[in-house]
Specification:
Blueprint (H helix, E strand, L loop, with lengths): L9 H9 L9 H15 L5 E4 L8 E4 L6 H14 L3 E4 L10 H14 L4 E3 L7 H7 L1 H8 L7 H9 L3 E4 L3 E3 L10 H5 L9 H16 L1 E2 L6 E3 L7 E3 L1 H10 L4 E4 L8 E4 L4 E4 L15 E6 L2 E6 L6
Parallel strand pairs: 1-5, 2-3, 3-4, 6-10, 7-9, 10-12
Antiparallel strand pairs: 2-13, 5-6, 8-9, 11-12, 13-14
Helix pairs in contact: 1-4, 2-4, 2-7
Amino acid sequence: MLKALNMIEDYFLKNLIKKPRKILKLKFQDISNILKSAREILEKECLLLEFNNIEPNNEIHVIGDIHGNLQTLIELIKLINKNNPKHVIFLGDFVDRGPAQLECLIVVLSLKILFPNRYYLLKGNHETLEMNQYYGFYQEFIERFPAQNTFKEILTLYDAIPICAIINKTILCLHGGIPEDLEILNKLRSLKRENIDNDILKSITSGIFQIMWNDPKSGIKGFSESYRGEGIKFFGGDVFDKFMKTNNLQYLIRAHECFPEGYRWFFNNRLLSIFSSANYKGIYFPNPASYAIIKNNKVIPKIIESLNY
């Protein structure tokens, strides 16, 4: 057992990645140490990650929703090991709904701890208490670790996760979509959690919420109300173009929606929507798992061919 935060050994984490079913046998102290170690790394990062001067031949892999799908996550790790990208960016939604929620979260955090300058995490709409209570992860966690306040460590981790990332000043990565606040990226730039006071919090809360929740929709103009709930919007190509022009961006990669074809382009192939949990709605409504490769400042969608659909 791990006895202290600074005693997490590489071999221990590598073994969990190699044999993730062992995660279910861990005691809470082991889980706690991993959560705290990951949080310490994440807290040092800015809410807006920026990757500049990525060399033309270097790849960045962008991964969408995992939702407790361990089989898909294992295949993604195999692809990463084979392709050897410079960076890997997860767009959030690691838990809820799937059969291996805790395993997926701990595997991703273990990768982050082992390789903090290679693996990066962004926050999705399921990195929240409300969604975990509604869709299952909260119940699973407290049944496994029923001691009082254990889930608070999960929430503290969520609070440290960055919101979005920009690659070479041209490609934006986030979970959901663009917000109504055109200046949100400038507000988030160079901002760390420890620097947020009440005034700053008020100025960014709505924008962050919409980044995690909003969806693109073809054939509409502006922002319109979404079926997802209050304050959440669909956005059309006109406001997408305005947001991208205001921030000097060329492409946007997002997740958040499952499509039967695996991924979908919007707005003249400038917005790519990926989803990395195969057969998310069950075998009767199959979907392939997808991810994206960024290379030479271009966005290339990929299907994980090794999975059965």
